[in-house]
Write the structure tokens for this entry.
Amino acid sequence: MNGIIRNTLRSTAIRNLLSSATSTGIAKNQLRTLWKISSRQTELTAFASQNMLKHRHVLCNCCNCRSTHTKAEKELVEFLAEEIVAEKKAQKLKTIPTELDGFKVSLNGADVNLEKKQDNETINISFNINHTVDSEAEPELDMNSNSPDIGEMKSKPNFTVDIKRGNQTLGFICSFNSEPGASGANDNYNDVFGIDEITLYEGEHSDKVYAVAGEIIDGYLYDLLMNYLEEKGVSNEFAEKMIELSTNYEHTAYVSLLEGLSKFTSGK
């Protein structure tokens, strides 16, 4: 019965969450949940009502499975089956490219690495897709709508750019700007990303290496370093393509997680 009560009250909880979101902003880890719950609350309430008198353990017929599962496991597997289909339909890119503007793309779990060699230099860009999904813009929420529009979901990870020449490395830690022109550069520029930290070292990086924050260096020097990155291929246009790459890969990883969760729950 606790599950039934939770499903019955979900509509009220969503409206409270939406009301709070308009004044405090939506946390990154709430966005996907809000997106899905708002469109499925009616389905879940009806589903719970149909199953409220079932036994604690039921014979599962999902995917021709003949093993015994708890009621919670059966409901989870059935929900995941629908969710996986919906997420696959929403995927914009089924295959992640192996190259992006001359950078070779390497994937290792949640880690993404881009590498390009030119002249006597090697340029490495790396980032991690975990906890990087956010809405593209601050949503305008309609309290009377059961399916609020919270904007397009984008993955905007912090990333590092390492330019290696011989035994030396010039390193940059960068992050995407929430709004154009919000970096430490001149306000006349609409930079997609900004420089958070700069360092120069020999051999392997360690905590002993000095690093300076991008926001405290001379403004003209900051702009020159942004121009330097652009010449190396890390331009605003390239940064936009990185967002698309990260978004598509994060979505692919999310679908894989759902599929793995379904197999785990069903005992396959």
User: Anything to note?
Assistant: Residues 1-25, 41-59 have pLDDT under 50 and may be disordered. The radius of gyration is 23 Å. The longest strand covers residues 193-202.
